[in-house]
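anyone seen this seq b4? input:
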Amino acid sequence: MPPAPSTADGGGLAEAVTIGVSVSVPEPFGSAIQDARAAYGDPLARAIPTHVTLLPPTEVPAARLPEVRAHLAAVARGYRSFRVLLQGGGSFRPVSPVVFVRVEEGAQECRELEAAIRSGPLARELAFPYHPHVTVAHGLSEAVLDTAFADVRSFRASFAVPGFSLSRFCADEIWRPWETFSFGA
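predicted toks r here
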């Protein structure tokens, strides 16, 4: 089990920690999306590793982290590796200024994982219905979002998903992977 984040590593753990759970997009696809996000001028491009969210940013009491880890390990044991196909683009506009790559294959598995993860000690309401995707541009001008949408239509990547990652939001405002949970382990 990894140590709890400390002030020295940017974790800033006091009484609570902000966590997220996601499927990591592997190389070379992760860097390609992150580079595109940076080229569009997205200030969060280098602060957020490329991923499919399974649990959005969620604050949990530090004392409950062992329970959260046990919950995530139990969820992971109940699933098997699956394939994800990222292909084409989508947008949440006008509700939210986001352009993304669609999860064409593996979306149902992501939905099932999201529901299992967002239960027990991580039960919470969402601001929007869950929709698996990979963000390419967020909070930018309409013109930039239009360009990103046009560019992402030709994107295609396929990869195996062997598990998911627990990440933490650190004091330096960067998301860092903290622990990986392998399926069936």
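Residues 7-182 form a domain with the Cyclic Phosphodiesterase; Chain: A, fold (CATH 3.90.1140.10). DSSP finds four helices and eight strands in the chain. kinda curious what u guys think
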